[in-house]
Design a protein that fits this description.
alpha/beta
Length: 184
């Protein structure tokens, strides 16, 4: 059940669904996608994605100043993600300070999800904290949070039967709290 819930959430991100405005989740019109050579995982690519998120606007055109909180990567980029977010790197030049490290002004928490590897070995994402803006909503039917199980006596075999039910759904709510880099 936990794997199903996880997969449904990531299917929303990887499926790049059309939103209420008729535009794909990650699209140039939403100003939340980077592609090409400059999108490969690097400090410059992370800075570029952060800039896209910061400049997102509401429906009235007001800048939202959304800061990323999470660096979402597949397992192929796990080592790089931890290198970019590790507090253990101490630069010798002031210009080499990594603001994405733990303790930095825009500290990112790496989230590694192997489901992303099937879609791309190079793509990565920045996501905002859900307290700042809705990203992907996951929900249960009211009163049925989590997996429900029932057991009952079997009439056709010597034993009991088990029924498991999970009423769960996931849906992208807003594109403004997410940015994607194609990674090349």
């Amino acid at each position: 059940a936990r794997r199903l819930e996880n997969r449904l959430v990531y299917d929303q991100i990887l499926g790049n669904p059309k939103l209420a405005d008729g535009v794909d989740l990650f699209h140039a019109d939403h100003k939340n996608v980077a592609a090409g050579a400059a999108s490969a995982m690097s400090l410059d690519a992370l800075s570029g994605l952060r800039k896209l998120m910061r400049k997102q606007t509401d429906r009235d055109g007001h800048v939202l100043n959304i800061g990323p909180s999470f660096l979402l990567v597949g397992s192929d980029l796990e080592t790089q993600a931890y290198q970019f977010t590790s507090p253990n790197y101490s630069p010798t030049e002031p210009g080499a300070v990594n603001e994405f490290r733990s303790g930095g002004r825009t500290a990112l928490t790496p989230v590694v999800e192997p489901l992303l590897d099937a879609a791309s070995a190079t793509a990565f994402y920045l996501l905002a904290n859900s307290a700042q803006v809705d990203t992907v909503e996951f929900a249960y039917v009211d009163g049925y949070e989590g997996l429900r199980t029932e057991t009952f006596a079997s009439e056709d075999v010597d034993g009991i039967k088990l029924r498991a039910t999970l009423d769960f759904a996931a849906k992208v709510m807003d594109y403004r709290g997410m940015a994607k880099s194609a990674g090349v």
